[in-house]
Specification:
Order of helices and strands: HHHHEEEE
Shape: globular
Structural class: alpha+beta
Distance between the termini: 50 Å
CATH architecture: Roll
Bound molecules: zinc ion
Largest sheet: 4 strands, antiparallel
Number of strands: 4
CATH class: Alpha Beta
Length: 149
């Protein structure tokens, strides 16, 4: 028996034809939404697209997706999105593959909480491997914050 969709997915589905939160200018359903659910669930083909889909998941409150794309070795036990945070935009600065199966994505994500703007400038590390027995795919591992800029 099919489970009813989680409320967050229902909300995301209602936005399927809206512009994707990641800023690609494509509809959500043709961008990050493909990896959030459906036949291509969790199948973001490279680290940059996984990065974008995780940003969109933060915007949409898709906690389960964040957990399923966070490497088991570093995924926090408590993982929740804060509905009070308003995400304002994502800018992917660069994506590189230092060696096969590893990638780094530098990005700036802007948000607002309680009237205060916040700018997150991070280089995230990703690996491509079979970390949960469901096949090889990309995972977020951890990130380094860039102070000041
Ligand atoms: Zn997107």
């Amino acid at each position: 028996m099919a489970r009813p969709p989680a409320p967050a997915f229902a909300a995301a589905r209602a936005l399927a034809h809206s512009a994707c939160p990641c800023g690609s200018a494509r509809p959500l359903a043709a961008c990050c939404g493909r990896w959030h659910e459906g036949p291509l669930h969790l199948q973001a083909p490279d680290a940059a697209q996984l990065m974008r889909s995780r940003y969109s998941a933060y915007v949409l409150g898709l906690t389960d997706y964040l957990r399923r794309t966070w490497h088991p070795s570093t995924c926090p036990a408590e993982l929740d999105t804060d509905p009070a945070v308003r995400w304002l935009g994502l800018q992917v600065r660069s994506a590189r593959t230092p060696e096969p199966g590893r990638a780094e994505v530098e990005f700036v994500a802007r948000s607002r909480l309680g009237g205060r703007g916040h700018r997150l400038h991070e280089t995230s590390r990703f690996v491509s491997e079979d970390a949960d027995g469901t096949g090889v795919r990309w995972w977020y591992v951890d990130g380094t914050l860039h102070a000041g800029g």
